[in-house]
Amino acid sequence: MIPTLTAFESSPDKGRGLARDMRVRWALEETGQAYHVRLLSFAEMKQPAHLAQNPFGQIPTYQEGDLVLFESGAILLHLAERHAGLLPDQADARSRAIAWMFAALNTVEPPIVERSMMTLLERGETWYTQRLAAVDERLRKRLGELSRRLGDADWLDGAFSAGDLLMVSVLLRSKSSGILDEYPNLCAYLARGEARPAYQRAFAAQRAVFTGAAAG
Ligand code: GTB
Fold first, then answer.
1. Stated pTM of the model
2. Residue 126: which CATH number?
């Protein structure tokens, strides 16, 4: 059964791979799974047919036979548990990799998204500069902590895992802030993730949607 993923028909990031379908595409590529993509307009995302799949009217969703999932983290965990390549076999190492998945989504992604939404929506506000400084400090704190833990390791806990896949995916969205450049080991970590053949295939597939080169 080939699963179907939903993605933006017209991504606001113009094919830079920052929307959350990219992390699912990457996981599917890492685990060697074929997949279909159903592209949705913003209007279609709010229609009953899609709301039945995702109550928040967002992408990505994932359908595999009768199973419908929303939330990119849940989709990643589903794929990582059912296919080899994204979670270690050893039980404790597996739990630690899952902890990194949660850390990426619950601890590192929030200040990155907060900054990104702020620069998008609040630029004209009188308090923008002052608030941005506070938001930047929160982001620096998190990135500093992550950078210290990663040290000179290639990946967060031994071999590449779904924890790294999600962490790299969330860090990518902070690239444009310039703040990530203050942490050379995180930049190298990101580059290692982006260099993976599975990442490259996923990136090319989502970019093809933007350039109009997508097949089918
Ligand atoms: N917690 C959910 C998950 O992890 O799946 C969040 C899903 C989510 O935020 N989806 C976004 C969405 O559908 C797309 S990815 N938004 C439409 C809506 O809520 O109505 C977020 C995103 C969008 C655009 C960029 N960008 O242009 O850089 C980056 C990330």
1. 0.97
2. 1.20.1050.10
